[in-house]
Amino acid sequence: MNYLDIELKGINEEGKENDFKLSDFKGENIILYFYPKDDTPVCTKEANLFNEYLNKIKQFARIIGVSSDDIEEHKEFKKKYNLNFILLSDKENMLKKAIEEHHRPTSILHRATFILDKNGNIIKFWEKVDVDDHIEEIINFFEKELNI
């Protein structure tokens, strides 16, 4: 299955529930980041860092966070930390499995980030993310590698 066409429930930037496919965002770069669990220390730190640098990152790409948490957990997480980007609920790990198959069949994603170009192609990935340096790595990628 093409990872761009998998439809998942999610919470948009305004906190409203919606169905999303990555193909809905063709024409935009996407930072697709997988994380284990809402409202846990490292996942919260990572989400808050994305949120803190949102204005800078929005110059380059749309941020979409993905975990297996359900919609209600996402709503609470988003509201509690005032997160201003999309969170997708991948309860059945369909998107995660499709990305793993497409990206590297032997890969098992835990905390990973993928940059998708405007056509939905994976152009950069981090399989082992250190949340302390990760936002800087992403911004550097866009500024230096893509000259954006």
Written overview of the protein:
This protein has 148 residues and is an alpha/beta fold. It has one domain (3-145): 3-Layer(aba) Sandwich (Glutaredoxin), CATH 3.40.30. 35% of the residues lie in helices and 22% in strands. It contains five helices and seven strands, in the order βββααβαβαββα. It has helices spanning 41-52, 54-57, 71-81, 94-103, 131-145, and strands spanning 8-11, 17-20, 30-34, 62-67, 86-89, 112-116, 122-126. A seven-stranded mixed β-sheet has the order 2-1-5-4-3-6-7. Helix 1 runs parallel beside helix 5 (131-145). The longest helix is centred in the last third of the chain and has 15 residues, at 131-145. The radius of gyration is 14 Å and the shape is globular. It starts with 7 loop residues before the first strand and ends with a helix. The mean pLDDT is 92.
For the termini, the CA-CA separation is 31 Å
Side by side, the strands of the main sheet go 2-1-5-4-3-6-7
Mean pLDDT: 92
The second-level CATH architecture is 3-Layer(aba) Sandwich
Alpha carbon gyration radius: 14 Å
What's the helix count?
5
- Report the uncertain regions: none
Helix content: 25-40%
Helix- and strand-based class?
Answer: alpha/beta
Whole-number count of domains: 1
User: What does the overall shape look like?
Assistant: globular
The CATH homologous superfamily name equals Glutaredoxin
Number of strands: 7
The helix-strand sequence is EEEHHEHEHEEH
The CATH class turns out to be: Alpha Beta
CATH topology: Glutaredoxin
Strand content: 15-25%
Q: In this structure, how is the largest beta sheet organized?
A: 7 strands, mixed
